[in-house]
Amino acid sequence: MTICLVSSVSVAGERTGAEVVKNVTCPYCGLLCDDIDVYLEDGEISRIKRGCGLSNAKFVSEADRIESPAVREGEELHEVSYGEAIERAAEVLREAKRPDCYGWSSCSVEAQGLGIELMKEARGSIGSTSAVCHLPSVLAMQDCGAPKATLEQVRNRADVVIYWGSNPVEAHPRHFERVTRRADGYFVKGKDRYIAVVDVRETLSAKISDEFVKVEPGGDYEALQAMRSMLQGNEIEADEVGGVPVETLGELLGRMKDADFACIFWGLGVTMSGAKHRNVEALTSLAKELNDYGRCVSVPMRGHFNVAGFGQVCTWKTGFPGFVDFTGDEINYAPGENTSVDLLRRGGSDAMLLVGSDPAAHFPLRAVKRLREVPVVQVDPHPNATTRFADVVIPSALVGIEAEGTAYRMDTVPIRLKKVVDPPEGVRTDERIIRDVMGAL
Ligand code: SF4
Q: Which tens digit of pLDDT belongs to each residue from 22-74?
């Protein structure tokens, strides 16, 4: 196996015969930590340094891989050549009246761009996994904007940080270390920041923060609107709003108002509960209005390592951040009508191309039932629940480990992903697979 090292030094004394690739970007969560050292022995990854438990699982664990291309005959998947699998995938798209494509959050932006071109060619539709996470954030930011900042700006300047509906200790385990509590910035030391967590339960992140504000499930919108109202100088004629004592909301608002630089990080607790995109609108509007007093910014805590990238690429290519439909003469952007879940639930799509996703495990039951009825082409490094009924399965390389590419961090800063080892023999990159399906189409 050929090892592609971006930079390597001997670490003799630590591990005999080992090599290390420095400053590798972790392709797991939207924080895209770009300081991982990857240790190689005999061309295999033996361990990593500075990664968290999640990155360790991705780089080092022996997770199952799809071993070869396969096509379903009856109940069974049968191994076929790569060329045959590509031909069959193209046939599925060609024969469909209304193909749909879903996934993309664990692919490079280069592959995402090709996927959009492919679905234009196939006259279908395409969207990413943000349909089941931060789509409400996208809609809210289109409606009313959001004051944004890079994570470096937050690390260097933020003296007040609010995590609202997000639990970084478990979902983005190095966020405290690299951006807030344990990250010393140019103007502010990590330990001097005031960190509050607003959530429906006392998470691990809440336990190690300065303050935990417990909001009732679905109460975020009311709590945020009450804070906006108080900021306008209004009195709230209630003891509590959204399950939070008004006094507590007032104190939290006071801290944000008095801050030199406040940042609100928001997560799925905001986007996927209660008023969804209206929650985000209220949150980003509060952040905007606080700029009359000091500086306040807001950053979504994106989950998959390149879910933010799909929105960027789709916007360059179509003018819309995803959920685009190429079946008519003009591009139709209609989230809420043409996300993959919507289409499947109403029987609107008649074939699916899935790239790096497992909708059988995450979609609502009615959508999964329909998914089982249509031809499914799956491109993925790992077998998952969807593989059990996929009609064409094509194994792909792990981008950021076995292939290079570009991804967008949660604050939409593009970061380069390195290749540190070769993929298993015969396994191609997403880019190559999509290009070949396009050729066959
Ligand atoms: S916090 Fe996220 S990006 Fe950073 S090492 Fe952990 S999983 Fe990887």
A: 999 999 999 999 999 999 998 899 999 999 999 999 999 777 999 899 999 98
What distance in Å separates the CA atoms of residue 56 and residue 27, rounded to the nearest whole number? 11
By most ligand atoms within 8 Å of CB, the mutation choice from 52, 166, 265 for ligand 1 is: 52
Its sign, for the CA torsion 141, 146, 151, 152, is positive
Whether the Cβ atoms of residue 180 and residue 158 lie closer than 8 Å to each other: yes
pTM of the model: 0.93
What are the tens digits of pLDDT across the range 334-380?
888 889 999 999 999 999 999 999 999 999 999 999 999 999 999 99
Q: What is the 3-state secondary structure (H, E, C) of 70-120?
A: EEEECCEEEECCHHHHHHHHHHHHHHCCCEEEEECCCCCHHHHHHHHHHHH
DSSP string covering 326-393, please? -SSSS-EE-TTTSSHHHHHHTT--SEEEEES--HHHHS-HHHHHHHTTS-EEEEESS--GGGGT-SEE
The full set of domains in the chain, from first to last, is 8-60 (no CATH), 70-133+305-414+424-440 (3.40.50.740), 135-300 (3.40.228.10)
Cα of 401 vs centre of ligand 1, distance in Å, is: 14
Which ligand 1 atom lies nearest to the CA of residue 32?
A: 3
Length of the chain in terms of residues written:
441
Distance 355 CA to ligand 1 centre (A): 22
Q: Which two tokens stand for residue 13?
A: 């004394």
Which residue owns the Cα nearest ligand 1 atom 2?
29
- 173 CB within 6 A, ligand 1: yes
Task: Assess whether the C-beta atom of 55 lies below 6 angstroms from ligand 1.
Answer: yes
> How does 414-433 read in b/e, with b if 16+ C-beta sit within 10 Å?
ebebbbbbebbeebbbbbbb
